[in-house]
Amino acid sequence: MKQSISKVFIKYYAEDMQTFCIVGNTVNTGNWNPEHGAQLNQTETCYTVALSFPTNFIFEYKYLRMGNPLIWENFGNRKIHCNHAVIHVKDWEGSGTSEIFYQDEGSKQHHYERLPEIKEHIKFSLSDSIIFVNFNLPIKVSRNPLYGDDNSQEKWLIEKNKGIWLPVLFDLTIDKNIDILWIGWPGLILNDESEQKELTDLLLSHFRCYPIFLSSSLLNDFTNFCNTILFPVFNNIIYMTRDKIPQYSLEQWETYKSVNSIFSEAIMNNFASQIIWINDYSLMLTPNFVSRRIHDLLNIGFYLQSPFPSADVFRVFPQAESILHSILACDLIGFHSYDYASDFLKTCKLLIGVEHHFSKEGCLLIEYFGRHVMVRVGDIGVEAEKIRGLMTMPEYFRMCKEVRGKYWGREVVIGYDTMQELSGLTLKLRAFGRYSQKNAWKPLLLQYLTKPKLTFGFEAPKLRDNIYRIQNDINSQAGQTIIELIEENPSASQRYALMAESSAILNTCYKDSICLIFYEYLIVNEGQLKPVIISESAGISKTIRSFIKINPYSDHNIYNALSTMHNKDHFLCRDHDTNWVLKNSMQNWAVNFLSDLKKAQKNPKLMQYMKHGMGDKMKLVALRKNFSKLDLESLMITYKRANYRAMFFDNEGTLVESMKADSRNLLTCMPKAKLLDCLSDLAKDPQNVIFIVTGREKRVLESAYNIAHLGLAAEFGAFIRWSHDMDWESRGVFSELWIESAKHIIASYVTRTEGSYLEEKECSVVFQYKNCDSEYGSWQAKELVSQLDVLLTPYVDECEVIEGIGYVEVKPRMVNKGYTVEYLMQECFEAGIVFDFVLVVGDDSSDEEMFKAIKELSVTKHSSISANARCFSCTLGRKPTQADYYLNDSAEILQYLEALRHWTKRDPEAFVNWHSSMHIVDIIKNRQDQNKNKDFDI
Questions:
Q1: Four-residue CA torsion sign, 483, 489, 493, 495
Q2: Which SUPFAM superfamilies does the UniProt entry name for this protein (predicted)?
Q3: What is the pLDDT of residues 776-813, one digit of tens each?
Q4: Do 10 and 78 belong together in one domain?
């Protein structure tokens, strides 16, 4: 007998294009022998490989970066359960989470085909207009102290702002003649309105810069908030001692909002359909304010220049959700590394419950209230030509000569760090002092200390005193200068001269995002084998292979790295790394970000966009263009003309109001008499099939809807009854193992969530929290889902976790409302029934499966639906949904059903048909009885 095979197509996304192979527990992947692993094929965007395995085999594997040394992934084995004919897998470097899409033989539509598309052909053009919003302008303005009444001197002194990336990007836009408007603070306090206008006109006309003027008090309060609150949060710092815990008040948050509002006003005043690029965490609320004030559809991108914190750290920030909603008002969100993007995605899932997935082209997308927000990972680069150009200038050669003469005969290790705790300076100095003691030639650490734009007010003086004390101790003990501290931000020429004359560069930061200094070091020393020792916590540590990575918390590790830094093995990949830096320039980074931003822009041809909510938590919601209120007249016309009709309804929240009371009491779920009478009359029509499809158990439905010819689907369709006088049929055998595991986990959450309870059904377990405080209950539910996803991994093929309004349920994987509707439609077709009218009504996430099922049946022209049939999928309220229509509430649904009932009872022809035709349900019953008899005869 021929063994069935699963075909697995794998895409692997890595930050830098190198050579990889896949090694696993099969012959075709080397049986864990790297020499026989399957090499991945390189494309423009990722690596690919196609493999085949026996069906139901569990494939375990790792990715291996080839080279000397070989680098394995540093977490547990990846696993794929080969239980489908075709499996598509997407993996990311540094993340153990896989995106897996299944396709079975004979399936009409692969999951991949339902993924959103991103228009890859769209690119950024130099003719596009941009508004670039950063807290600081790329230029700095000061008042000329020599300016007088004779006007012999310029009133304003204008210079480029110091920094590695912003002034370089500014120069690039000038060189390429890009139409860009810069918005930011000019670097001075200016209260006189006439001077503000004068300076604005000057900067706009000469530099395309629009200055933001802030009062001294507002600026101080704002920077203090960024320094003491946001900076530690975004760098994953939580202080436990009372003297270091920042004092946070609502007034500080209002200050932050005020500054962001001022920046948004500046964008509004200058907006003329440009692309908008907003930069870094000081302006995280600006997207929200801009979206509120400008009614046009905006193309907004946000790039975070810092790390993004873990979900556990970010959630302690009181306004965490407001920040997430504002950032998600953008079309594109950029991060330096996948680690930061991953933390952002996990935080979005935990705090506001939004999911992410990939587009057909492999773009990472967040599903946010009907919109697809793209997430881009791309490290900022340096401009090699700019660096090489400066290295030909007389100033550079003069600096080189000066450095060479001053430190002649010494091995100079340089360091560039900001004066803050995260730089790891104290351990760095101690480790270098120890290294110097062991070397007769007494190497020198030339340490530059720059003032950070953001730092804690309480830490700078203490840190400075501590650093100088360590320096004095080491130098005194050695009898000469071993560590030289220089508190200044060197010019580019001076920086490159120091790099060229140094022997190595050393970094020991605890956390850093932009480390462009090390890219510059490779370019300045191109062709030379000079060591780069960098903290494994630095943002670029995973990108460059020839860097020597150290643990910044271990002085012994730092000492060993210094002692072995000239080992030739460290430089085997240096040429490759240098070429990578040359290729991934700042220009390419900016162009790629802007190209993705254009690709991610909103589509007004297909979607309608509306603002939902007030204040900080306003959301930009997208609804399909053809989404509208269900028209009763159109519904009635189709209903009258139809030969056979199918209707599927959710129960709570749809036919009856969703109840806050404990739903274990059956009376709270009972429908009103008027609704029961209406359903009873509609169900009598022999041309109608009507089902209540709900997550409720059988006993609840039996007590509420004991109506002739009314179908019931309990527990999402695990149990089905076609009429009150028929038996329940079970659609599967369900394991007790995962039910017991889920019950144990949910029970622990119930004990610490006041007002919640555990609901046990025959084949599922539910965490009900409708009676809880809404915010706390939602918080606990998100935590529970995260826990269940992890702890139920061994049963991933048997069960799934779903979230609804006020509940979290663990249920059998292949049982949901969508599959149930498909099953019922198929059963009717096999009994010879083809429908001309289909109505599906529901209100929460579980009902989306019904909407999708009916849409697919309609689009694929399934044989259970006639060629001229009309399908009506309807949700409650205007919201992102798979449904085509909406109604406002349960009362309006009853009105529509009353209209259908009224026509059915009064139509003479329909009345005759009731008595002359066999009811659809009776046809189904007869067919089932015949099948039972056949089985018995066999």
A1: positive
A2: HAD-like (SSF56784), Starch-binding domain-like (SSF49452), UDP-Glycosyltransferase/glycogen phosphorylase (SSF53756)
A3: 888 888 889 888 988 888 887 788 888 877 889 998 87
A4: yes
